[in-house]
Each structure stands twice: as structure tokens, then as C-alpha cells.
Amino acid sequence: MTPTISIIIPTLNEESVIGKTLAHLRESLPRGAFEIIVVDDESSDRTADIARRYADQVVVRVGEVHGIARGKNAGARVARGEYIAFLDADCEPEEPAAFFEKAVRIFETNPRIAGLTCSLKVFPALATFGDRVVFAGVNLTFRFINNILRGGGGSGEFQMVRRSVFETIHGFQETLMVAEDQDLFQRLAKLGQVRMEPSLVVWHTSRR
Questions:
Q1: 98, 201 in Cβ contact below 8 A?
Q2: Residue 91: its pLDDT value, please?
Q3: pTM of the predicted protein model
Q4: Could you read off the pLDDT of 147-171 as tens digits, one per residue?
Q5: Do the Cβ atoms of 33 and 111 come closer than 8 Å?
Q6: Based on CB atoms within 10 Å of each CB, which residue in 38, 92, 148, 163 is the most buried?
Q7: What is the DSSP string of 73-128?
């Protein structure tokens, strides 16, 4: 069975969080419809070993030029899903099955949608007042940029794309060491529509 969604998680020394993230996904998502791909940039800790317990594929990039854009593209090259979701190692979609069901419905309802992002919130146990204020602003900004201005903007915590459009624009710009996520959505916006869906929530640790 070909999966509908490929979830790609780039990692580098993530042993403290990757097990929790992958267990959350694996316990919530039906096998077959989803595949989980971890792309590891030669972690010096147990990240890759932990990932192998849960992921469908673990791609360890040995002796290559590293960087998060290159890692994400490496995952996309082995992905089989019609849609590709990029997720950071410390991030968890809220109620993953319902989350991705709604995300796919957004794409299917509007064939012009090329990219989708969502609300970002810090885990309640970790969130400070400042975190709540900052990410309220971040979410409002991305909602305005994508849904009103149609200019394209998104954070690497979560981005979901049509695989066909992603391949058309040749994925992430590998020359970029930062802001590869913003650049991707700006280029997607030139070929289709990009959207921030506020009812979809991804929780994260706010470590970045």
C-alpha cells in the first residue's frame, strides 16, 4: 500500500526528544496510510538507534555536506506519499490522526493549495507567558502572510506540501543554512496557494 502522507523529521543529536515524538506519531497514526522517515546528520548520540525503533526509514547521511535543507531533501527523495509533511524532532501534532485527516481534506478541497502550515504552541508544561505572547504573534503573522497577502511564510516546526509541487520547485534551497522554510513557502506561493490553518495545532518545546 502506497502511503498518502510521508512525515519527514530531520535530526542531529536529538536523543532527548525523538523517542517521544516518534512514539506519539506511531501510536496515533494507522500504518499503511503514513510513513515516518527520519533523516539523521551523523548524530554522535543515540538518535538514530532510537529512531529505528519507530520509523519506517532512517536515512543516516554519512560523509556528506550537511545542513537541514539537504537533510529534508534527502528524506523527500525516498518518500512515497502524495503529500510530504516536514516536522521538527521536538514537535507533536495535536491528535495526529484527526490533524492529518483535516490537512488532507484542505488539500483535496482546493487543488490549488501547494503548502500548508498551522498554529504553533509550546507544550503547556513548558510554556512561559513570553512564549504564549511570542507564538500568538508568530501565528497571527503567518496567517496574515499566507491567507491574506498570499506571499508565503512558514516555520520548520511544521510544513506540509504536495509532493508534485515540491518536486517541481526542486525542494529546499540547499545553499541556505537558515530560513530554508520561509524560502520554500515563498516559492510555493508562486505556483499555487499557501495556507495557515489556525485550527490545526502543533506543540513544541520552544527550544529554538
A1: no
A2: 97
A3: 0.95
A4: 999 999 999 999 999 999 999 999 9
A5: no
A6: 38
A7: HHHHHH---SEEEEE-TT-EESSHHHHHHHHHHHHHH-TTEEEEEEEEEE-TTT--
